[in-house]
Design brief:
The complex is a heterodimer of chains A (446) and B (284).
Chain A: H1 2-9, E1 33-34, E2 40-44, E3 54-55, E4 62-63, E5 68-71, E6 80-81, E7 86-95, E8 101-109, H2 130-140, H3 153-156, E9 166-171, H4 180-187, H5 189-203, E10 207-213, H6 217-226, E11 231-236, H7 245-253, E12 268-272, H8 273-285, E13 291-297, E14 305-310, H9 315-321, E15 329-334, E16 341-342, E17 356-361, H10 378-382, H11 389-397, H12 401-406, H13 417-421, H14 428-445
Parallel strand pairs in A: 1-14, 9-10, 9-12, 10-11, 13-17
Antiparallel strand pairs in A: 2-8, 3-5, 4-7, 5-6, 7-8, 13-14, 15-16, 15-17
Chain B: H1 2-29, H2 37-44, H3 58-66, H4 80-90, E1 100-104, H5 125-130, H6 147-151, E2 157-159, E3 165-167, H7 177-181, E4 187-191, E5 196-198, H8 206-210, H9 222-226, E6 232-235, E7 238-241, H10 252-255, E8 262-264
Antiparallel strand pairs in B: 1-4, 2-3, 5-8, 6-7
Helix pairs in contact in B: 2-3
The chains are: A alpha/beta (446), B alpha+beta (284).
């Protein structure tokens, strides 16, 4: 125990990063509640990174809760399942949280159905070969629930010459305001541990690690009580963006994932708490990814909550369930305040990657005036990827595309630590995104 | 003293003569023949290096002219007299290329397209397009933040009161800079004689389209019915005008358009909005 105490005295972390106000008080003590079913669900075919899914249902068809409604469009793509029992009302263009109109399956709920999920036998994971496991996970529609929504089965595709040394579960939840992973670890520590064990036995790895930031001591205690000795609970310093998988590996093992590479390149497998739990639900109980925990919070909403929301629920319905927006509400952001995206319409649905619905008021979303860069270097100090954000923003502004690549723009994962510390309020991350767009078109044309 | 000066002078003269001899030899044996006309042609060309001809710059175009792989008319920036002089110099025909103009496949200015939210970020279309496309209700339309105006080398694009880019046909050389810079891919280069033009890019139909933008194409298909057979075809809820077929498009196709999405364009594309046209907003 003395080593653990010493670890907590000097918690592990990475270089760089920032310390935003975590604002988790409003919801971190609220148990997860189930969101009641609403009349209509909108399931965009593209809710994950990679190719969009292909619809396998027709308009007018009756669908049962948990039944596949779309199949993967490619290897890096995943399936979709119906969040409710009902009828397919339309397959049409609907507003997607990315601001575009995208094809979506619209399902009308059957008001007289019990919405009970069919029972399923647990899968014997140890008996599965690697390819079977990949196919099985792809069938579940599982994606990284931390926010990036990268299809999970791709991570289980371990090349033959590699052997996973460590299975890491990401319980950092470094984004301010969000508490969904915190509540999951607190309320279902056995499930998280079970999921970790399933992944470990599947990839044949002996060691598991669950990294949790120190502002969630109750979750650390709950996981420690539930975890067997081969799974270590690693307390980490409270710092943003600790939850980025490369930085989590850096903090726990002091090892670096190669630029442009994946954790698998150094034989590690990282999944978030939510994903791990959803995986154990799928393998043990046959529940595909049809709902997720969403933190509805911020000064702009009447009753902040942690809600278990069926995918495809419109934001307006979720907010209504939470008492609606307060009069001063000004901006609704999907995700956290650092990496989330402001929405222009409350008609957009909750997607697989939606970790939070953040409602800001006029003070929190106040407009800022941009000033010239004063070369203070705070952005470079804050950047966890050792980039020079102000330089990259300049290069993007003047369209020096080749230099953008030479300055490793593609290593930027848009954590917004640079924009957060910039005293001149330069929208650095927006410039990074513009620069990445330029780089893509340039690469496509040359 | 005098002797030293003379020695130095002698050495310098000797070296000068020796190098002159080397240069004379190089001129005689290593000379590259260059067409004297190249310089004259370059002099005649505008020298903007705009790239409208498809070559990287005016020198490259001049070389292509000499090789007779292109006709002088390919340079849309030069005026008629210059082209004739170029053609005379080369002893070829002018090879008149029809003037093309950049046209915008959208007429949704801020008084006509619904704004769902206020965008307060960087004032650039490309920047707005990476954060949800600003507050626009139509995800295909013009964002109105003037990236094309800034990109235009010839000052041919000007944003009007309705936040739409107006292309002046006169200075526009169809260089394609606006086509490249527009994140919504709305600009197309069309020949000046191709006057029937669809000013909408949204593949929506009926009420769905008009609820977002008052001048959107609602895919009613009247233009396709009114135009001569095979001239206008509805593809993916948008009319496509076929100029490659023998049929001649006529203004008739625009007469029954309920929203004005299909237009018979002469000169500039958009009229100034009426003074009392307020922006169409749905937020407080």
């Amino acid at each position: 125990m003395s080593t653990a105490a010493a670890a907590e005295a000097r918690p592990r972390s990475f270089r760089g990063g920032v310390h935003p106000d975590d604002n988790k008080r409003a919801t971190d003590a609220l148990a997860i509640e189930r969101m009641p079913f609403v009349d209509e669900y909108v399931m965009p075919l593209s809710q994950h990174i990679g190719a969009p899914a292909k619809a396998v249902v027709m308009v007018g068809e009756r669908v049962v809760r948990g039944m596949p409604i779309a199949e993967p469009g490619a290897f890096i793509s995943t399936s979709l399942h119906s969040p409710v029992t009902g009828r397919v009302k339309a397959i049409e263009l609907r507003l997607h949280p990315n601001g575009k109109m995208m094809p979506a399956i619209v399902i009308e709920t059957d008001a007289y159905d019990s919405q009970r999920l069919p029972a399923a036998e647990p899968v014997d994971v140890a008996a599965l070969c690697a390819d079977e496991m990949v196919a099985l996970v792809q069938q579940s529609g599982l994606v990284g629930l931390g926010g990036a929504a990268f299809p999970s089965h791709v991570k289980f595709k371990v090349p033959d010459d590699r052997c996973v040394q460590a299975v890491v579960v990401n319980g950092c939840e470094c984004e301010p305001f969000l508490t969904c992973d915190h509540r999951l670890m607190l309320e279902q520590p056995q499930g998280v541990v079970r999921g970790t064990k399933l992944i470990m036995s599947q990839v044949g790895c002996e060691r598991g690690y669950i990294g949790v930031e120190l502002n969630k001591r109750d979750a650390i205690a709950a996981l420690r009580a539930a975890a067997p000795p081969e799974i270590e609970i690693v307390p980490l310093q409270v710092k943003y963006p600790q939850g980025a998988e490369k930085l989590l590996i850096d903090a726990i093992f002091k090892r670096e994932v190669p630029a442009g590479g994946l954790p698998l390149d150094i034989e590690m497998l990282v999944n978030s708490v939510g994903t791990t739990l959803a995986l154990s639900d799928w393998l043990d109980r046959g529940v595909p990814l049809i709902e997720r925990v969403v933190t509805v919070t911020g000064p702009g909403v009447a009753h902040p909550r942690n809600l278990l929301v069926p995918l495809g629920t419109p934001l307006s319905a979720v907010l209504e369930h939470c008492g609606g927006l307060v009069p001063g509400a000004h901006q609704v952001v999907l995700g956290g305040p650092m990496m989330g995206m402001a929405q222009k319409s409350l008609g957009v649905p909750v997607l697989k990657g939606t970790s939070g619905i953040l409602c800001l008021d006029r003070t929190a979303a106040a407009p800022v005036r941009e000033y010239a860069c004063i070369r203070c270097g705070r952005c470079a100090e804050a950047c966890p990827m050792f980039l020079n954000p102000t330089r990259l923003a300049q290069l993007a502004r003047f369209e020096h595309v080749e230099e953008l690549e030479a300055n490793s723009l593609l290593n930027c994962f848009e954590c917004a630590a640079c924009s957060f510390v910039c005293p001149s309020h330069i929208p650095l991350v927006q410039w990074m995104r513009v620069g990445k767009g330029m780089l893509r078109t340039w690469k496509a044309s040359s | 003293m005098i002797g030293e000066i003379l020695t130095a002078l002698g050495i310098m003269t000797g070296m000068g003569l020796a190098f002159a001899a080397v240069l004379a030899m190089a001129y005689r044996f290593l000379r590259v023949e260059e067409d004297p006309r190249l310089e004259v042609i370059e002099e005649l060309l505008p020298g903007n290096n705009c790239g409208a001809c498809g070559e990287p710059g005016c020198t490259a175009f001049a070389e292509q002219l000499l090789a007779e792989t292109v006709a002088p008319g390919k340079c849309t920036v030069s005026d008629g007299d210059t082209l004739v002089r170029l053609a005379d110099l080369l002893g070829v025909g002018v090879g008149a290329e029809e003037k093309r103009i950049a046209r915008l496949k959208c007429a949704g200015g801020r008084s006509n397209v619904k704004a769902l939210a206020q965008y307060r970020g960087m004032s650039s279309c490309r920047a707005a397009s990476v954060v949800d496309g600003g507050g626009h209700g139509c995800s295909w339309g013009c964002l109105g933040l003037a990236d094309c105006e800034r990109a235009c080398t010839f000052d041919a694009i000007r944003m009007n009161e309705d936040w739409l880019p107006v292309v002046s046909p006169e200075p526009c050389t169809a260089c394609g800079d606006c086509v490249e810079v527009c994140p919504q891919d709305l600009f197309v280069l069309v020949a000046e004689s191709h006057k029937l033009f669809v000013q909408c890019n949204a593949p929506l139909s009926g009420e769905d389209a008009v609820a977002r933008c008052r001048v959107a194409c609602d895919a009613c298909g009247r233009c396709a019915a009114d135009a001569p057979e095979g001239c206008v075809e509805m593809v993916n809820n948008l009319p496509i005008v076929h100029y490659d077929t023998p049929c001649q498009p006529s203004p008739e196709a625009t007469w029954r358009c309920p929203t004005g999405a299909i237009q018979w364009l002469e000169g500039e594309q958009f009229a100034e909005p009426e003074e009392d046209a307020p922006p169409w907003r749905t937020y407080g």
